[in-house]
Amino acid sequence: MSLITENNLGAHADDVYTQLLDAVQGLNKEQANRFNARLVLLLVNQVGDPSIIREAIELAQSGMKDT
């Protein structure tokens, strides 16, 4: 299995993005960071495949070098 990098949410992509934005609305930076960390850990547990998680981490890290 390989990391899916194209839209895998179909018609629901905008709804999910809106939910993510709404979830941190009104939180201060520390609270938003804690929320994001908790969400990442929950999703990592759901994925459950260390090779996919490693690939996602590496892809995310490479994107940080551009900013």
Task: Give a written overview of the molecule.
This protein is mainly α and 67 residues long. It has a domain at 28-67. It has 3 helices and no strands. It starts with 12 loop residues before the first helix and ends with a helix.
Layout of strands and helices, then pairs:
Layout: H1 13-24, H2 29-47, H3 50-64
Shape: globular
Largest sheet: none
Cα separation of the termini: 29 Å
In total, how many beta strands? Answer: 0
Uncertain segments are none
Strand content: under 5%
Helix-residue proportion: 55-70%
- Spatial extent as radius of gyration: 14 Å
What's the total helix number?
3
Mean pLDDT: 94
Succession of helices and strands:
HHH
Structural class assignment: mainly alpha
